[in-house]
Design goal:
Elements lengths: L1 H53 L3 H26 L6 H4 L6 H12 L3 H20 L7 H26 L4 H19 L10 H19 L4 H13 L3 H7 L1 H23 L17 H15 L1 H18 L1 H6 L5 H12 L1 H4 L9 H7 L4 H30 L4 H28 L16 H28 L4 H18 L1 H10 L1 H8 L1
Length: 519
Amino acid sequence: MIAAHLQASRNRAVRELGRSGVIVLVIFIVTIGATFLIPLWTVMLALGWVFGKAIPGPSAEALLGALLFGMSYLGGATSGSISGAKQLTWESYRTYPVRLRSIFAAELVASSLDLMPIVLGVSTLAVCVGLAVANPLLIPLLPFVLVESVVGVLVVQLLVGSLAERLIRRLRVALNILALVLAVGIVFATMIPIATQSSDPMTSALATASRLRAFVEHAAWVLPTTWTAKSLAALADGHFALAIAYHLVPIAALAIIAVVAARLVEREASGDIRGDEPSEKLWSFKTAIAGVARLQFATILDSRVGKFGLVFPLVVVVLVRGPLTVLVGRAPWAVPAAFIYVALLGSQFQLNQFGLDAHGTKSLLLLPIDEADIWRGKARGLALYQTLQAVSLAIFLVLVQRPSIAEIISGALVFAAMVAVQNAVGRPTSVLMPRMMPRKRMQSNATPLAAVLIALAMSLGFGGILGLAFAILARHAPAYRPLVAFMLLAIALFVQRALLPHATLLLRRRKETLLAALG
């Protein structure tokens, strides 16, 4: 199997690249190696030497475990999520009497020649060389460290690649939330809480680095690679048996991941016998309203603008925490203003509720669904999406800005009122001024002037009134802010419900105009 894979890879490279393509590829690899890989491996060599001098020591063990985890597990996850990792054609090999372990072993060998495992493997080798130079007592276990790291990259990328192929549609929301979490981590790593700000930039930077290091040291103890680092420390202390025992933890973790990855890929290659049989239930929603809501929600998440909208609360928090704090200090209207600003981003979806449906609008209108239920379903789908934005914004503000509970509740209620008003205004504009919205690019089609003016009026009018009202309340009657926000939400929901019959009648009468514009 390995020989067949190598021959097929060579033939495919010759066919696709040609002689000139091979020369260009070699030049590219040499350039990347000189500008990125060699400096990277030099840094890893230096880190290995530093850790070799510091071991044994709790801090050194935790930080070395975090470094090995990043190169092995996180590197494999990155490789598997970006391009997948399966090299062999399991579907064809399963027709022969070949054992699963043989295919899996051949898969690991074939995957080891991929770019990411090579780069990460050499990086781990550089760390091991640095450890050996700094502390020769560690040499007996360093080959195990290298093998465990490379095998970790291979099995994790195979597992993640298989999961990405099987579950990417179902995990779209989770992946977006994970992206938000990673972005928050990056921002928090570079931001300093208000309570610990210092006029000296060097002091602030050192304090932030110290807190980040303490967090990494504390979190690293749950990583399997930290036990690898502990085994090196035990060996440096002369406890050879204890060092071997510590290695059982990362080996067990790799074995579990390998078994799960092998079973997933085998199941995928074998196919699901029940996959061609129609299920008893052809959809996963109970009512037509729930179906339209799910369609609207999934359509927004499938668009680039919708994905950016999930990251937008983080941008708002950075603005509130950074430039606005510097210019005006901690203003009492900052929290409701942040919620209003995030809510205004949903105007592009609310004022054009059929825009992302595009040609699917015809199919939607041909279904035996009442027009009022279509509006209710779209309202729920849009509300669910914007609720995710509000929740993430609230979490970021609590962690960074430290507002009071009253400020958060007031801002969330104002956000909900703004969403209700947008939905009520957006129903007639979606029918009278429809336009297609692209899913795969950020730049939208030309927006009608009337729609621009309506969005501007909501931003300056309703948003400005809410912001001014809360600024006055925050100064003279801060205790009444949640009550006033709740009253505004109740009024907005009443108006939205009262205008629903008019929007339903308008949709019935203007179906032809809507279909002519969208599909």
